[in-house]
Hints:
The structure is a homodimer of 508-residue chains. The first copy, chain A, is mostly helical. Chain A is built from 20 helices and three strands. A three-stranded mixed sheet of chain A has the order 1-3-2, with helices on both faces. In chain A, helix 9 (218-231) packs antiparallel against helix 12. The longest helix of chain A is centred in the first third of the chain and has 40 residues, at 3-42. Chain A starts with a helix and ends with a helix. The relative contact order of chain A is 0.11. The model of chain A has no long low-confidence stretch (mean pLDDT 95). Chain A binds chain B through residues 24-25, 27-29, 31-32, 35-36, 39, 43-48, 50-52, 54-55, 57-59, 61-62, 235-240, 251-255, 292-293, and chain B through 24-25, 27-29, 31-32, 35-36, 39, 43-48, 50-52, 54-55, 57-59, 61-62, 235-240, 251-255, 292-293.
Amino acid sequence: MADLEKSKILTRRTAYLELEKRFARLSALSGASAILHWDSAAMMPVGGSPARAEQLAALSVLSHELLTQPEIADLLDEAKENTEALDPWQSANLLEMRNRWRHATAVDPDLVEAHSHATSLCEMQWREARANNDFVSLVPALEEVVNLTRSIATAKSERFGVASYDALLDEYEPGCSVTTIDRLFAELEQFLPDFLAEVLERQHHAPPVIVPVGPFDVAIQKQLGLEFMTALGFDFNRGRLDISHHPFTGGVPDDVRLTTRYTGDDFTQSLMGTMHETGHALYEQGLPKKWRSQPVGLARGMALHESQSLLMEMQLSRGPDFLSFALPRIKNAFKADGPAWEVANLERLFLKVEPGLIRVDADEVTYPLHVILRYRLEKALLAGDLPVADLPAAWNSAMRATLGVTPPNDKMGCLQDIHWPGGAVGYFPTYTMGALAAAQIYRTTAVEIDDFEAKIRAGNFADLIAWLRTHIHEYGSSLSTDGILQAATGKPLGVEDFKAHLRDRYLP
Amino acid sequence: MADLEKSKILTRRTAYLELEKRFARLSALSGASAILHWDSAAMMPVGGSPARAEQLAALSVLSHELLTQPEIADLLDEAKENTEALDPWQSANLLEMRNRWRHATAVDPDLVEAHSHATSLCEMQWREARANNDFVSLVPALEEVVNLTRSIATAKSERFGVASYDALLDEYEPGCSVTTIDRLFAELEQFLPDFLAEVLERQHHAPPVIVPVGPFDVAIQKQLGLEFMTALGFDFNRGRLDISHHPFTGGVPDDVRLTTRYTGDDFTQSLMGTMHETGHALYEQGLPKKWRSQPVGLARGMALHESQSLLMEMQLSRGPDFLSFALPRIKNAFKADGPAWEVANLERLFLKVEPGLIRVDADEVTYPLHVILRYRLEKALLAGDLPVADLPAAWNSAMRATLGVTPPNDKMGCLQDIHWPGGAVGYFPTYTMGALAAAQIYRTTAVEIDDFEAKIRAGNFADLIAWLRTHIHEYGSSLSTDGILQAATGKPLGVEDFKAHLRDRYLP
């Protein structure tokens, strides 16, 4: 190799290593933000809000400044010129770096700031509007958010050469597109309505569910949650469980902060919530150790992330094998007995299907219909085909058409979610993509792991977790979502396994 | 005024306002660090350490970069040229900004980094050395820290035009000097030994202290702490109480995080510890609201900070009026009775004087002697007059000479404190300056507040706290320590009130 060539390659390696240094710093700042976000939700006294807002804003502005420094563009170009000098993980890392940089530089900083202010304001007004069931008061602020989100989408669309909606989606699920989602959702829509009707008919003839009556001691609920988290292999040396109003998983991979909430009259909420967040948390704890501080070491996207939580909450925890392990423990913990505590009744409780108004309370059969409705509406909002003021009417008619229920008010209708006031357009579809992926992954583990059902019944989850580590978590972002699914399950994301799962579980 | 003049003043105002913006960002970053530090001590699982270290290092490096940007020097000069455009608080703020910038730019960044690495390493080795009672193993690392600290002191000394030790002291107690400390400590040394002998003699003839025997329920201890914090006016909307191995007060003024620790066999530690930290916390919560994000809004220095904690722990909490309010509540909380719980015995318990080996366990009479010993030794270390290897011998002989006790090992001698391994030279004197200030302030409040003793006995602390707010807390850093004391107590920091306090309390 000519000396000149050699020295070029050296420069490119050096450029790459310099990028690693800079992204490690960005990772540290984003880790700091993550812990502070958790603290805001789980620990902070109310008076701390203004100072916390300043702290988070400073971190976000600084990170943006660091990511958009002119040298970054040069370094990315230099490093890209000869990726032969890089190993596959480094190459994948370089792609991830470029994607982050692309998002950060595609939009005029003034627009980013205007959007950030508008969403903060709109979120605040949304809380009030929802409490007062007053959609009209939210219209101006929400229009502003939708307009600014559209401007961002346009700017990114032009820069990336993709459709506007795809440009937004790319932030949550890199590389995904309307084409893919339209196809998946169309298949679901073909299947779900008839299937739902059949399930409702079947459940109508089953014995009625007897809901266990509390009070359920919160300390016991917490103890149960911790017991199941431990059984699933959550590493408490690298994470903790706390309480917040809206359960979530935050922190950093070696310090995962998950939260749940307890209510004295229903133990299933905190328990299933904890299982859900534990799925997220195990993904984070299982990300590749070597790449902790680099973009390629992060979770692949929201779809896979949600697949891990739904795998725990929906696939595993509501299945008969897990229930036969868990129910005696739950019963014993609460020292409860009687007909409500019969295994058959509790199974019916955990698998009850019922079209309802609220997405977060929905069962796994009707949940995708909530998501599809939102996906259609947010595409129309973004395209300008649906004026914000017409949202309640559009929402209510879609609810009637897909789920057969009519919201009595906007509070239980189009005011229920924070996503749009927060400017998060393109996020909703990932919930259902996650549900599809969860089914696809879980059905593969059931085949590939010896004596799978027996192990679950015995409370032995080690093989399941090890399989997820190897086939999902440890890839980080080194492959695409479909790349990981292809390697793990033999095919890209599809609806077949989800349909099969629903049929097996609800119409056996 | 000529137009040119006007425009110059405008530029200077603009320069000042630009500085305010930049220091507000620095304040946000330092607030983020403060919460993350608290989290490390009170919440973080062990596995989170490496990621946390990266987060804190990134924040510290970035802050240093922002503070040392070349524009800052220009802005400071521009703003300084005509301080007539500024109001008194703004002028004071500008002085504080300059002092911070001076400290940040006085030392070569390589030296700062070397010092930071050396202290991290030495702190780690110190933990091991202390556990193993092995001073020799610490010598190389501690020599490195002392040498690098000396280099920093030299650089700052040249830049500031003050003595080396003063240059270090300035970080903890701005504007203070060896001259002042030497004078204060000389007066104490003239007084304390004879006084101590007399107190010991007096206590020898008093009835022996009966130590209350536990176990003391930790939940009750916590409840008691919260009760007294509330009585003192701690605002739980802007702060919280948690547990950590080493109690401290952290966070930010509107989100103060204080910690304590509980042991089942002694309730006095957590209680007095909580009172101490509450003093620190009330200072933070009382800092001027308008200047939250600026250097002038910060606590004046370590001496005044310690004065606020010692005022609560030593002046107030161990005095007869507070005890007559608190003891029935303590007794009632633990449902305790018997001779150990007689008021007279508990007073003797809280006022027991005894020369001992450990600074943090020392009573208020012997504490200054521990500090003076350290002050002398650290001055000698810094000057190079005392080789690190000779520290144990020097320590032990000084202990014998001043306190009449000989450490049986270095663990209970020169290995007990983290300050020197952490590179904190110039910090120790502020403990005793704080004790002097506490006495001076408390004796003023007792004169200026009507029916002071009766109010304390009734558990009515509102006037005391209001007085401290107005006369100490709300000054922030707008005056010097002596300036604040002069305004509050009619004189600069001195030893007379402390001596009078000790005489009144221990030799009535």
